[in-house]
Design brief:
9 helices, about 70% helix, 2 domains, about 180 residues, mainly alpha, globular
Length: about 180
């Protein structure tokens, strides 16, 4: 995300054009594989597939993500922070739209301001459909409580997190 930084966005476009061997005279189609190939990898990238599986209630994907979390020894607190950031993002969306607003009411500029980019728009849309109002309040409270638990009991942090995430994923899966 360039966060509306025109120079950074232009740099990313130039890098993508170079990767695809594209030019104004010879345009190329961009696909997600090309974007993944040139994109910088961050810890957040490793967390988001699990965040999306849990908050979307994607039970089939969740099992594999939980195994991956254990095998990669993902930092429980770092992972929880990714959940907290997504919950905060959903709260910002809810505040922007109000109680009767629709996700479809958001324009491209508003989506960019809210950190909704095309790669994750579908997941965020689905999560927003479930996690709003009192449910979002409960999720946020649970994440804060879980954060305290992880910090207080670092020896069992992976187990505590796995149990909590499995419970969270059951809620949207019921719909």
């Amino acid at each position: 995300a360039a966060n509306l930084d025109v120079r950074l966005a232009q740099s990313e476009i130039d890098k993508l054009a170079l990767y695809l061997d594209a030019s104004p005279q010879s345009p190329k189609q961009v696909d997600s594989a090309a974007l993944d190939a040139i994109g910088a990898v961050s810890d957040e990238d490793g967390f988001m597939s699990l965040v999306n599986a849990v908050l979307s209630g994607d039970q089939p994907k969740l099992a594999g993500e939980m195994v991956r979390m254990r095998e990669m020894a993902l930092n429980p607190v770092g992972l929880l922070l990714a959940f907290e950031r997504r919950a905060a993002q959903l709260a910002r969306i809810a505040a922007r739209l109000g109680p009767r607003g629709s996700f479809d009411d958001l324009g491209k500029g508003e989506k960019a301001q809210l950190g909704i980019f095309f790669r994750e728009e579908r997941e965020i849309r689905n999560q927003y459909a479930y996690w709003r109002g009192p449910r979002l309040d409960r999720l946020t409270s649970r994440l804060v409580e879980l954060h305290r638990e992880l910090l207080a009991n670092s020896q069992a942090a992976h187990l505590l997190l796995a149990q909590a995430l499995t419970g969270m994923a059951r809620r949207p899966a019921r719909r």
